[in-house]
Design a protein that fits this description.
By secondary structure, this protein is α/β, with parallel strands linked by helices. The protein has a single domain, classed as 3-Layer(aba) Sandwich (Rossmann fold). The protein is 28% helix and 24% strand. The protein has 7 helices and 12 strands. The strands form 3 sheets. The chain has a 7-stranded mixed sheet, with helices on both faces. It has a 3-stranded antiparallel sheet with strand order 1-2-3, with no helix packed on it. It has a two-stranded antiparallel ribbon with strand order 4-5. The longest helix has 12 residues. It binds S-adenosylmethionine. S-adenosylmethionine binds next to helix 3 and strand 7.
Length: 222
């Protein structure tokens, strides 16, 4: 079982705790996260010394907690998927993406203003993931359907970052909830989007906010 202290933001999972090098300011009006500069300097996988992004945060959580199995829902260009695999050599990571246009997706299809080139992105991810061998498990499917291919209680974390509509985020969390161990974490992206936040508030109250609008919480609180 994991425990989240809502005052300090410390999460205890067995004997492990939230990374000591991440300092949370939990002021709800303006939450921030800081990283211990001395730790940052000696960690080569912190490639951008001035910026913390979702992929670094997830990699740091993986390392600190000793996680060995996780899933990313919504792989896109592979930014997080490839970074985390590269920097967490003990991790096996599922990457789930449809890599096809989704005309019915009310969340977003191309928030960066460019039409997403799914074929190119998929090819890029598959090519670059080859070097990780069995540690990279790519499932090209709807995120909720892909959950059927994953054993219950087998994951240390799931990173929910696919369709950002309220219903889809809720469905993804519900479909993948049984896959995550009781000691594991549900992590997501874009908590600054009200349509995402409403689900996080509903299903995972007490979540912590990480860099780059990432958010997450231990699945079970004691
Ligand atoms: C915001 S991007 C993911 C960004 C990525 N997680 C990262 O950190 O770089 C969303 C991706 O989710 C995929 N996607 C959206 N809805 C999906 C669904 N219901 N099932 C499978 N993939 C989906 C899209 O094809 C797109 O590549």
């Amino acid at each position: 079982m994991s425990t989240l202290n809502l005052t300090t933001g410390q999460v205890t999972t067995g004997k492990q705790s939230e990374p000591p090098y991440l300092k949370w300011n939990r002021n709800p009006a303006k939450p921030t996260i800081e990283i211990d500069p001395s730790w940052k300097a000696k960690n080569p996988y912190w490639f951008d010394q001035d910026r913390i992004d979702r992929e670094q945060w997830i990699a740091s959580l993986v390392k600190e907690h000793g996680w060995t199995r996780g899933a990313e829902l919504g792989v896109w260009k592979g930014r997080t998927f490839l970074f985390v695999l590269e920097n967490c050599p003990d991790l096996t990571l599922y990457g789930v993406d449809l890599w096809s246009a989704q005309p019915d997706n009310e969340g977003l299809e191309a928030y960066d203003g460019k039409e997403w080139q799914h074929k190119k992105f998929e090819r890029n991810v598959r090519n670059k993931a080859e070097k990780f061998g069995d540690r990279a498990i790519i499932i090209k499917d709807w995120t909720t359907k892909a959950a059927d291919q994953v054993e219950d209680n087998s994951l240390d974390f799931v990173f929910v970052d696919a369709d950002h509509s309220t219903e889809a985020v809720r469905n993804d969390i519900k479909a993948w909830w049984p896959k995550v161990k009781d000691t594991g974490w549900i992590i997501g992206h874009d908590i600054n989007w009200p349509i995402v936040k409403v689900v996080a508030d509903e299903l995972l109250p007490g979540y912590v906010i990480g860099p780059d609008n990432a958010w997450g919480r231990a699945k079970c609180l004691t």
